[in-house]
Amino acid sequence: MRGLLYKHFRTIAKEMWSFLLLCAVFYAVAFFAPGMEGNTTAIYGMLMMSMVITSLLRSDETTGWRRYCELLPISRKEVVTSYYLVNYGMLTGAILLYIVLMSLGKVWRGSADLQNVFSTALVMVAVSFLLSALSIPITLKFGSVKGPAIHFAVTFMIVGVGISLLNNGDKMVETVAGMPLAITGLIMIAVTAAAVLLSWMISVRVYEKKEY
Q1: How high does pLDDT run on average in the chain?
Q2: What is the longest distance spanned by two Cα atoms in the chain?
Q3: Which residues contact 60 (CB under 8 A, 6 or more apart)?
Q4: Which residue, among 13, 87, 105, has the nearest Cα to 46 in the 3D structure?
Q5: Residues with Cβ < 8 Å from 108, sequence gap 6 or more?
Q6: Which of 73, 101, 118, 202 gives the lowest tally of CB atoms within 10 Å of its CB?
Q7: How many domains does the chain have?
Q8: pLDDT in tens, 34-89
């Protein structure tokens, strides 16, 4: 497993450094931007980070690494798990970095109100974690050519259903908005964790049935 993780990080550092650079640029802009503008900019940075795993899967597919991996004494379940560990480890690190940077920015400006920082961090968790949970099994199943189109179509449908529910669920929106941040955060994290676990289980099943 350590060898797999090392290989993934080397590939990311060598081929996907532009995504990391863009995330750093967005974070830098967010640090100096006033008010909610910085929060929105930071979310763009997380979107860049959530694209790293798709690029890594595409790289492994196009270079034929997966066929070579079949010769190694590792199970396909371990291969899939390594993708999830790298992806969610990087996303978690990026979100923690955001919290530290934005908290320091608040203190620098003389503000002690960190609620916006943690609220935005929860949005970043939901957006980046759920996007990855959706993209990994789709990319493993349909490949790097068909996968992005299917991923876009599924995301478009989910967003459409979500907007429809929000527009027709005023009471639900008011209830969620009136809940304490801690409770909202726990619910969001629980739902996200369940989605990631389900995504991992589907990805393992898909990858174990693949023929190389």
Answers
A1: 77
A2: 58
A3: 11, 66
A4: 87
A5: none
A6: 73
A7: 1
A8: 655 556 777 777 877 888 888 888 888 888 887 777 777 888 888 899 999 999 99
Buried/exposed code over 193-211 (b: 16+ C-beta within 10 A; e: otherwise): eebbeebbebbbebbeeee
Amino acid at 46: M
Amino acid letter for position 97: L
Give the chain as a 3 state SS string.
CHHHHHHHHHHHHHHCHHHHHHHHHHHHHHHHCCHHHHHHHHHHHHHHHHCHHHHHHHHHHHCCHHHHHCCCCCCHHHHHHHHHHHHHHHHHHHHHHHHHHHHHHHHHCCCCCCHHHHHHHHHHHHHHHHHHHHHHHHHHHHHHHHHHHHHHHHHHHHHHHHHHHHHCCHHHHHHHHHCCHHHHHHHHHHHHHHHHHHHHHHHHHHHHCCCC
Least confident of 55-64, 87-96, 189-198: 55-64
- One-letter amino acid at 162 equals G
Give the contacts of 20 (CB within 8 A, at least 6 positions apart): 12, 48, 49, 52
| Residue range(s) defining the domain that contains residue 96 | 2-208
The pTM of the full predicted model, rounded to 2 decimals, is 0.79
Buried/exposed 3-20: b ≥16 CB within 10 Å, e otherwise:
ebeebbeebbeeebeebb
Place of tokens 């350590």: 2
